[in-house]
Amino acid sequence: MMKKTVKIAYVGCGGRACWVLQDCLRHMKDVEFPIICDIRDRALDRATELLVEMGRPAPKRTHHYEEVLKDPEIDAVMIMTGWEDRAEMAEKALRAGKYTAIEVGCAFELSECFRLLEAYEETKVPLMMLENCCYSRREMMALNVAKKGLFGEIVHCEGGYHHHLPAEDLLRDENYDRIKGVEGEKSHYRIQSYIHRNCEQYPTHELGPIMKILGINRGNKMLTLSSFASKARGLKDAAGKILGKDNYYANIDYKQGDIINTVITCQNGETIRLCLDTTLPRPFYSRNFTVRGVDGMYTEERRVLYFDGMEEQADLFDNEEEMFAKYDHPLHEEYVRLGERGGHGGIDWLVCRAFIESVKNGTNTPIDAYDTLALMAIAPLSEASIAQGGAPVQVPDFTRGKWMHREPIVKSKYCLDEVIVDESVKIFDEDE
Amino acid sequence: MMKKTVKIAYVGCGGRACWVLQDCLRHMKDVEFPIICDIRDRALDRATELLVEMGRPAPKRTHHYEEVLKDPEIDAVMIMTGWEDRAEMAEKALRAGKYTAIEVGCAFELSECFRLLEAYEETKVPLMMLENCCYSRREMMALNVAKKGLFGEIVHCEGGYHHHLPAEDLLRDENYDRIKGVEGEKSHYRIQSYIHRNCEQYPTHELGPIMKILGINRGNKMLTLSSFASKARGLKDAAGKILGKDNYYANIDYKQGDIINTVITCQNGETIRLCLDTTLPRPFYSRNFTVRGVDGMYTEERRVLYFDGMEEQADLFDNEEEMFAKYDHPLHEEYVRLGERGGHGGIDWLVCRAFIESVKNGTNTPIDAYDTLALMAIAPLSEASIAQGGAPVQVPDFTRGKWMHREPIVKSKYCLDEVIVDESVKIFDEDE
Known about the structure:
Two copies of one chain form a homodimer. With 432 residues, the first copy, chain A, is an alpha/beta fold. Helices cover 36% and strands 17% of the residues of chain A. Chain A has a domain at 134-329 and 365-404: Dihydrodipicolinate Reductase, domain 2. In chain A, strand 1, helix 1 (15-24) and strand 2 (31-37) form a beta-alpha-beta unit. The interface between A and B is large, with 60 and 60 residues.
């Protein structure tokens, strides 16, 4: 039975969380936010202001996560806090019977994934990582091409998080008082994690879409993972340049290697290569999203979609506009057409909408609990492999064998397992 | 003491060999080819014709390799035969006291490298793999930038052999009679190797230049190697498309995976990633040559040289012409200037000239025996790693510890270990 409105508890109201919240307030009159939660009053103020500015009622506010779970009116919880708390919070939300969404990120320890798995298996309440890049136009074009069989049999995919971030991270962290803390601000997780850990810490933007293209957890699974870290020089060097040689951050021996390469082998014989690359200078952001099949390829690095038989061209850079016109995913076709009428948050909007549609329709989510757990497991697996000199480690099968016969479970236009066109469903509930 | 002329025995006169021979006949009046060797009369005819056409005396011809080694007049041997014979032939050439050059390629078995190493250690006669891409303009620009310290500390390099070859390989092989053979032609090594083996079979074009940039065998060494193979679908599929579904080649289960990713860790903390990618459709050839340092990067995929502090640009494709103007390696600067006067073979010419200059001057070669052995070892190491599910294998240190204190050994403008400018040496002996 379809709900007319969806009541969401919004948990964690930091900068990124407010950005996403703002998207959820656009073209979504069927969504209500009766309660928000954060340990910081300043963050609660900011989210409240945002809601009121966007014409919504001022929400209930709480510092206590348990309180949002007790409210029987709440349909779903969106957990937008830092990395440390998410797994435990998600577990509690599932056990409280609430649809649960979590922001992108990995577990620190594999056992977090298994605890969350038990909660899911006992409750069967849907759990979704809000992996926004699954709904990016490029990745969805490739998904569309893949699911139509136009790449032919796919044998290899790759992607990475290539993003030069030292200035952003260091300056944010420098403004954070490490002794006293600053109410409403927090040291950036990346710096703290890079000081202490060495692994593929941020794989979901590329791996999420790749998993969908390769049918991971639905007829295929990840089998082994091997990770390799270069030495760590970028952040220390950048801190010296940006903050001065005597600064605290210029005198840390960071554990996190500058370039982390990870190779995953899959049950059906495909390989996946991931790369984390955030501490060395580079002129452009890229997820290097790449699909290789016997009939064609997509490469984000050159922005080229190519099919066997097309002319080979050494100087082919960027044929995307032409290819979008031919191969856009139907959801993006519609989104681009409607989007022209006004701004909204692109991939964040779409991934949140995918979650909310699932809550509204009472279905599972297009990125489901098993997908979410597989994404969360990468960091601890990578850490173990690096610590063992690149030895391959086994990737857990969180479906416990069900991957062999699982079907796409969301027959909606937000489905990422096949391409479903449903003209009866509009992607916007209102007609602004 | 400098020789006025260099006398070379040219061994193996197939298609590629004749192409290189032609380059060696241009602007190299100080080089003579008194004897050529091949088991095929047709190949000997072709090379003879070429020499005579280019105004050289008709050479002695032989089917018997041992014969060229007996001639006391011969200074050097260039071994341009197929992969199978090279290691053994090189060993014999070293033991005969001849400067030895071999075409690019790997060993099949690690023990081949160790036998060759013993021959080198006992004779100390120079051995050089003719790794032409070490002298390519892009790679030399990056070398120049690296040796000037402008990348800052380098932490990661990568490269690959991305070349869509099925049509070329299959058609060549289809025309070869597998039962009787065809005199003067031969089944292409790649097809035979791809039917039977699964490994990084062709790493030298990218790894050669990377080794020089990272100072491998001179203050640094390769430590471990891990390789991963995707499933093998490309060649079988291509054979069906090109030769028909019933063709012999469309019904082979090739062992060679379509995409081979290899990660090498180095003693000084750098990582190297290699990729072999020759059987799936792609629109452009690339070696994806990439250098990442704390102060800058080069990426062939986008053709961009970038330094920290330059503007970040999402749409930056190809700034090479601008960068060549600023950072060309002095050898290429000179070569490009002189090259305008007439055609010669680019990287093949330069790498052969580097070898010949070493013979002439009685020095070691800029790619030396240890470099050559390290390059040759990659295929068997990769094969072992893949067979063990991607387990890291140890890369032998052919220098047996000498890498810790080895200096650049060729103080010439062909040196690849540092940038040596020597105005007194012309790169052409003649003034055509």
